[in-house]
Amino acid sequence: MPTPPSHLLKLLELLQTKPLTTGSEIAERLGIDRRTVRRYVANLQDLGIPVDGERGVGGGYRLRPGYRLPPLMLGDDEAIAVVVGLIAAGREGTSSADAALAKIHRVLPDALRHRVEALEATLDFTMPPMAGAPVAGETVLLVAEAIRRRQRVRARYRSFGGEETERELSPHGLVVHSGRWYLAAHDHARRAFRTFRVDRMSRVSVGERSALAPPEGFDPVAHLSRSLARVPWPWEIEVLLDLPVDQAARRLPGTLAELLEANGRTLLRMRVSSLDWMAGLLAGLGCDFIIVRPEELRASVQRLAHHLARMAKDCSSRT
Length: 319
Description:
Blueprint: H1 5-17, H2 23-30, H3 34-46, E1 51-54, E2 60-63, H4 76-91, H5 97-107, H6 110-122, H7 137-149, E3 151-158, E4 164-177, E5 180-187, E6 192-197, E7 201-210, H8 220-229, E8 235-241, H9 245-251, E9 258-262, E10 265-272, H10 275-283, E11 289-293, H11 296-318
Antiparallel strand pairs: 1-2, 3-4, 3-7, 4-5, 5-6, 8-10, 8-11, 9-10
Helix pairs in contact: 1-3, 2-3, 4-5, 4-6, 10-11
């Protein structure tokens, strides 16, 4: 039976991270038996990788001291791209970013590794790190493969309320937003498009049936933006902004609000948990507006207006 290359790479990675690894540890990590461990080690040795075995109590396998994988040849610009990408992925909540960066360190030439370490120590971002929801790498890869091959997937899905259901989906796009992975897909049981948190999916498998084709011009990012803007918060807002839609879109992200053209102006629709927060948002848009609903929003806007007027009066009296 041929040895999967991915298993050999996992074994090689395991041997690099520890000075001595027992056969039992390897078998447990790779999900194989001891006999298969010996076969994998022999495969590495046939490839010219010096793996030494030590028998008896306290024995195991190790890479011969002094052996290193060939260096990863990256130019300066390529190294910057890889490092910045992995650091940014870690800040977006990708749990394996640090582990991937550690692997890059191990195979970079010494001179370039020192420069990369300097970049890591001095680089910062204007956006704070996200508290993301880690996802299983195997789940993401399976879903991505299904999207590319246009196949359906089956999965167990846990809702926000904790209810678990079996789903059959035609997946159309993966989107990362604020440290979370989302899947835009057609839900066959509900006969409608839905947005799913990938970290809430389990037991994912790719089926043999073909997926339904997405609508013409389907944009997963736009679909996610509309979905997030329609999250059922307590208050449903409709406000007519004295702005063209294109200008309103530059001031309000699509994940926050739904923006519709209305005779040269913009009808803003969104759901919020706080009317006072909504009043502050409207005040910051810098345009005239008409509140369509709810009526309670008018009181919040009036309170904010009175507060700002009082602050302005206090400031002028002190000057």
